[in-house]
Amino acid sequence: MSQYDKHDPRSLYPAPPFPKQEQSLPGAAWKMDPRPDHGEQSYVGTERLKGYRGIVTGADSGIGRAAAIGLSREGADLVLSYLPDEQEDAEAVRDLLEGEGRRAVLFPGDISDEQYCKDLVQKAVDELGGLDTLVMVAGRMDSNDDILTLETAAIDSTFKTNIYSLFWLTKAAVPHLEPGSTIVTTGSTQASSPSPDKIDYAVSKGAIKLFTQAVAQQLAPKGIRVNSVAPGPVWTPLQPGSDDAETVSSFGEDSPMGRPGQPAELAAAYVHLVSPESSYQTGSTIAVAGGMPVF
Ligand code: NAD
Ligand code: MG
C-alpha cells in the first residue's frame, strides 16, 4: 500500500477504544499500542526535494518522524532534533533513512534552550553544507484542569518549547536561507478550539499561527516562504504522555472520521509546504484534522 492507493479513510486505521495506556513526557513511539504508522511501509517519494538540506525538530516520533520520512524519501538530507531521552526512537528513524541511502544526522538537545537552537542550525550547515528548509514539529503539551495549580515552571516550559524556539531557530536559520527556501511550523486545532485543560498549550498554538502569518510577510521579500500544518487528533506519544488512560482510550472518537489520524497522514502536507510546488503559498495553514472544524 502507498499513500496513492484509493482506500476508505474511515477504516484505514485503528479507531477507539484503544488499550488504556499512559507514559511520562516525552513519550516513546515504541511503547505505544497500537504502534503509530509514520509511513515507514507506505510513503513513496517522487524526487520532489532532490538535493534539499533540512532540519526537522521532534523528528524521533509522531508527526515529526512522519515528516522526516516523507522529506527524506523525496530526496532531502536531514538533521534530526529530539530530546536526549528519545534516543531509541531517534535511532530507529536514522537507521531507516540512512538504510535507504539518505543522510539523517542525529542532534539531540532541548529547544527551550536558545544556545541549542543556534547549535542545531550550525550543525545542519556544517554537516549538510547549507540549509534549504526548517521544519519545526517539536512541541510540549500537558494537561491541567485547574489554573490555580498551573505552575509558572510549566507555563515557561510550554512557551519556551513551543513559541520561543520558533524565534530562536528562525533567527539562526534565516542568514543561511536562500530565496526558494521554506520554513514550516506546527499548529493545532487547539489554536481555534481550545480545551479547558490545555490553556498554556492552546495559547502557544495560537501564537504559532500568528508567528507564521507575521514572519511570512517579513520574509516574503527575501523569497523565503513560511507556512504551517495544523493537526487534529493524531495517534502519537504526545497523548499517553499528556492525558490520562481513559482519555487516550477514547482518543479521536469526536472526529467526524471516527478515529484519530496517524502521523503518516500528515507527511504529504509537510512535503507540499517545503517543496517548490507550493510556491505561492506563504502565511498559510493546512489543517489535517479529520473533519474537526479549524478557523
Ligand atoms: P510527539 O511526542 O511524537 O512529538 C513531539 C516531539 O517534540 C517529541 O518527540 C520531542 O522530540 C519534541 N520535544 C518536546 N519538547 C522538546 C524540547 N524541549 N526540546 C526538543 N524537543 C522537544 O507528538 P506529536 O503529536 O507528533 O507532536 C508533534 C507536534 O504536533 C507538536 O507540536 C504538537 O503540539 C502537534 N500536534 C499534535 C497533535 C496530536 O494530536 N498528536 C495535535 C495537534 C498538534
Ligand atoms: Mg518523541
UniProtKB/TrEMBL annotation:
Keywords: Oxidoreductase. GO terms for molecular function: oxidoreductase activity, acting on CH-OH group of donors. Pfam families: adh_short_C2. It comes from the Bacteria. Residues 1-44, 236-262 are annotated as: Disordered. The keyword Oxidoreductase applies. Residues 1-10 have a biased composition (Basic and acidic residues). PANTHER family: NADPH-DEPENDENT ALDEHYDE REDUCTASE 1, CHLOROPLASTIC, NADPH-DEPENDENT ALDEHYDE REDUCTASE-LIKE PROTEIN, CHLOROPLASTIC-RELATED. Belongs to the short-chain dehydrogenases/reductases (SDR) family. This is SDR family oxidoreductase. It comes from Amnibacterium setariae.
